[in-house]
Amino acid sequence: MPRSIIAGIGMYVPDNVITNNDLTRHMDTSDEWIQERTGIKERRFAHRTKETTTTMGVEAAKIAIERAGITAQDIDFIVFATLSPDYYFPGCGVLVQRAMQMNEIGALDVRNQCSGFVYALSVADQFIRSGMYKNILVIGSEKHSFGLDLTTRGRNVSVIFGDGAGAVVLQPTEDEGRGILSTHLHSDGSEAEILAMYNPGTHANHWKEGLADFDEAEMANMFMSHQMIDNAQLYPNMDGQAVFKKAVVKFPEVIMEALTKNGYQPADIKVLIPHQANLRIAQFVQQKLKLKDEQVYNNIQKYGNTTAASVPIALCEAWQDGKIQNGDIVCLAAFGSGFTWASALIKW
Asked: DSSP assignment of 252-270, as one string?
């Protein structure tokens, strides 16, 4: 059975840099307040009309495809991870296929938020291992800036997120000395509403306890209503402390699961690429696993939390900076909304 290798990798971030001080023009916050809680100094915001989740994904994909030494017409499957698609439907995968003038290949969209890219990578890895496909394009891309509440009311969420995209091309190899060794996926939906964007949606608030039944007219307006807009109910919701407490438990667990599966210890990791959720979470995980500074790659300071794009952006940057060489053990790990968490162990 062949293994999957990352044959090409690329990233794209918008030119528009938004510093913490820039945000103070819109909300009651400060550079010190944001850095202390998240480690973020700046992030990128896409152009409001000229850039989309898809177009950013395409730019990252072009680089990954070129580095893999193939063309867009050689791609035989697409897996696209995002929580901020161009449209409610269809997904971004088919839009990439159209934009890059690919053959009529399959396109799959993954909605696993912060762990979306690792989930997408795992799906693609199984297709490569089965022999079904030979050149799979995996993209993680987000345009958060379009849907953030950039006021004091929404600052706890809005200061965290940024825009960008990362992509890889997976190919098969018979070389047992390299490739994706294993992937590990988990979920626990018991506290799904702690980190969620409730509206628009078809839930009709059935998950809320103690609410009276809605009459037929109210139900008709439940997917989207003026009241939702007026009450700022169309923005993400997050209990940051609850997410932090869960993340610092599940992150180390899923990393150790990958290492144990393959007979490695934390000291064997050359580079850990954690989802860039919060620098404090990454520092906690580093301390828990007794990793050295040079073993953990963080770039949240520059880009903020780019959700499904954060792992491939960080992976690409670490590789471009020469921190990843052939034969190195690289671990990818993520935790996010759902809750879902995942890891992948790679011998580069």
From this structure: HHHHHHHHHHTT--GGG-S
Pairing of strands 106-110, 77-81: parallel
If residue 217 lies in a helix (H) or strand (E), which one and from where to where? helix 216-220
Maximal C-alpha separation, the chain: 63
DSSP-assigned states of every residue in 100-135: TT--S-EEEEE--GGGHHHHHHHHHHHHHHHTS-S-
Q: Which residues make up the CATH 3.40.47.10 domain(s) of the chain? A: 3-173, 179-191+238-347
What CA–CA distance (Å, rounded) separates 57 from 80? 9
Which residues have CB under 8 Å from 56's CB, separation 6+? 12, 14, 46, 141, 143, 163, 164, 165, 309
Rounded percentage of the chain residues whose pLDDT exceeds 90: 86
Burial level of 24, CB count in 10 A (0-12/13-18/19+)? middle
Instruction: State how far the Cα of 164 lies from the Cα of 44, in Å rounded to an integer.
Output: 7
C-alpha to C-alpha distances, 180 to 175, 258, 292, nearest whole angstrom:
11, 11, 23
Active site residues per annotation = 114, 275, 305
| 120 contacts 140 by C-beta, under 8 angstroms | yes
Confidence band, pLDDT 50/70/90 cuts, at residue 201: confident
Cβ atoms within 10 Å of 296's Cβ, excluding its own: 18
Class in CATH terms, 3-173:
alpha beta
Is residue 208's pLDDT more than 80?
A: no
Q: Is the pTM of this model over 0.85?
A: yes
Per the prediction, the chain carries an average pLDDT of: 94
- CATH number corresponding to 179-191+238-347: 3.40.47.10
pLDDT of 216 higher than 70:
no
First-last CA distance in the chain: 18
How do 271-274 and 329-336 pair as beta strands? parallel
Cis, bond preceding 90 (omega within 30 deg of 0): yes
